[in-house]
Amino acid sequence: MALLRNCSIFLCLLALTYSASVDNYENSKVQLEEYIQNKKKDINPRFRPLYHVVPPVGWMNDPNGFSYHNGEFHLFYQFYPYDSVWGPMHWGHSSSPDLVNWKTLPTALLPEKEQCFSGSAVSDGDTMILMYTGHASIDVEPYYNESQYLAYSDDGINFHKYEGNPVLPRSPNGSPDFRDPKVWKRGDDYYVIIGSKTSDNRGRVLLYKSRDMKNWEFLNVLGESNGDLGYMWECPDFFELDGKFVILMSPQGMAPQGDRYKNTFQNGYIIGSFNYDTNEFVPEVPFQEIDYGHDFYAATTTEANGKRYVVAWYSMWEMAHPEDVDGWAGAMTMPREMSIVNNRIYMKPVEAMVNLRDGVAVDGDVGSYEVREFGKAVEIFIDSDLNQKIDVLFDGRDGGGKVWLRWNPEFRKVVVDRGANDVREVLWEPVASKTWRVFLDSSSIELFCGEGEAVFSSRVYPLGGWRMVNESPQALRVKAYNLRRSVPE
Q1: What pairing do the DSSP bridges indicate for beta strands 328-329 and 58-69?
Q2: Taking CA 311 as the corner, what is the angle to CA 306 and CA 317, rounded to the nearest 5 degrees?
Q3: At a CB cut-off of 8 Å and minimum separation 6, what does 84 contact?
Q4: What is the distance between the alpha carbons of residues 436 and 73, in angstroms, rounded to a whole number?
Q5: Whole-number percent of the chain with pLDDT over 70
Q6: For the residues 66-91, what does the mean pLDDT come to?
Q7: How many helices (H) and strands (E) does the chain have?
Q8: Helical (H) or strand (E) element with 183
Q9: Which string of b and e fits 276-292 if b means at least 16 CB within 10 Å?
């Protein structure tokens, strides 16, 4: 009886402790939302986008939990609300009916003993399940550990963490770098891939399987660097597209090779085949960059309505973020629709972007050294003679940042040049359309060439709206639309 009584007392104390912990967590969420609402008043809006998702305040990095649940798209993100630099990681949260019009929802996850690093989301009926990396400090080298946690929501807004966390406490080889789970469901089974590294510092992706997301079986190393693809593969994704399977990941530690791999860290993909019986991925096309601009990292995808969509962090590590003095930092790229053509991923803006058009700004020829002025958000189609040079300057009507879009028929390269030798370029062989489709927002430019076979995403910081100067030797055929706001101010 004494043993039973002691056990009962222990269980009651445990329940009281858990209840107090839940209450403290819920109180912290309320206090955070009050802080965000008050802090928003201090934000300088000069570089705030009109149609890109940004944090309400503070810092944003990797997109997380990009998913389609009960008829709504959800986009979570790494979030530190208390400063415009990286800090203890939360999960911010936005939702959209169409990947274009977004609303900001309450912060989904707050750190406790663990920081809430990157992860993904999956639906189980009306329940949304988040799987994320818990990054915790420890007392011995390397002084951190990464393991996988779960959180649940019945309404897609309020999330509670699973009491049995972590569900995957360590990597198979003991590497502390074990993060960014991407989970999906196939039939009655859940699968997850997790980014990690070998004992000799080669990036790799690990594959697991489960019936309940709580008990996981390690299946295989899905993919691994041969030594040329970096020391760590972050933010992996795995999906089927147009009859092929794709590993999408962000390798750290790749050396630049000519025009390629010039960003601090890279983002790209390997195309191959996969068999769910053997759990083996066979690469068929070597690693390729997915976006050729300055600012594109940690891309993640979701599928809805028979289409595969991708979004990425619209920034880059170890680079300046000029907006941080304004009380916020970081953005998401426009979501894009993906396809595979000629063993390459093409990307194009989601169809609903046309619904943001708010009147024609320009429709006609723009002669050599003629100038056109726009507001802060504009979509521009540029048609030209690709047998002649193209040189278009976009800068601020009141100064600030500038960027050149260039084409030289001798080298057949599209160039995005932010000045001071900060150049990104790639060979472009149009497959059909020869049009450039340019999206400008308050602090960004996204260039889609032709059918989306070459895409550049770069941050640029003009002041007072945009100005276009045709510095080409030829006249350009230009049609431009003003774009309305689709994200909260």
Answers
A1: parallel
A2: 160
A3: 58, 59, 321, 323, 324, 325, 326, 327, 328, 329
A4: 28
A5: 96
A6: 98
A7: 1, 33
A8: strand 178-186
A9: eeeeebeeebebebbbb
Q: Which strands form 371-373's sheet, in the order they lie side by side? A: 371-373, 466-470, 390-396, 402-408, 413-417, 423-427
Is residue 41 classed as helix, strand or coil in its secondary structure?
helix
Shortest CA distance to 194 belongs to which of 185, 204, 181?
181
**Terminal-to-terminal C-alpha distance of the chain:** 63
Q: In the structure, what pLDDT confidence band is assigned to residue 20 with cuts at 50, 70 and 90?
A: low
Residue with tokens 């995403």: 457
User: In the prediction, which pLDDT does 257 show?
Assistant: 96
Helix (H) or strand (E) holding 5: helix 2-39
Global pTM? 0.95
Round to whole Å and give the CA distance between 472 and 393: 9
Amino acid letter, 483: L
- What is the rounded radius of gyration, in angstroms, for the C-alpha atoms of the chain? 23
Give the pLDDT band of residue 9 (cuts 50, 70, 90). Answer: very low
Instruction: Please say if the pLDDT value at position 22 is more than 80.
Output: no
CA gap 339, 143 in Å, rounded: 42
405-456 pLDDT tens trace: 999 999 999 999 999 999 999 999 999 999 999 999 999 999 999 999 999 9
The model's confidence at residue 6, banded by pLDDT at 50, 70 and 90, is low
CB of 115 closer than 8 Å to CB of 91 = no
* Three-class secondary structure of residue 261 per DSSP: coil
Residue 35 backbone phi and psi in degrees, to 5: -60, -45
Dist CA 123 CA 428 (whole Å): 39
Question: Cis (ω within 30 of 0) for the bond into 166?
Answer: yes
Q: What distance in Å separates the CA atoms of residue 61 and residue 110, rounded to the nearest whole number?
A: 15
Please give the backbone phi and psi of residue 27, each rounded to the nearest 5 degrees, phi first: -65, -40
Judge whether 196 and 141 are in contact, CB under 8 Å: no
Catalytic residues: 62
Note the pLDDT of residue 191: 98
| Residue carrying the six token digits 């994704």 | 237
DSSP string, 440-483: EETTEEEEEETTTTEEEEEE--BSSSEEEEE-SSS-EEEEEEEE
Query: Could you read off the pLDDT of 234-293 as tens digits, one per residue?
Result: 999 999 999 999 999 999 999 999 999 999 999 999 999 999 999 999 999 999 999 999
> How many CB atoms neighbour CB 154 within 10 A?
12
> Is pLDDT at 328 greater than 50 in this prediction?
yes
Residue 87: partners with Cβ closer than 8 Å, 6 or more residues away = 58, 59, 80
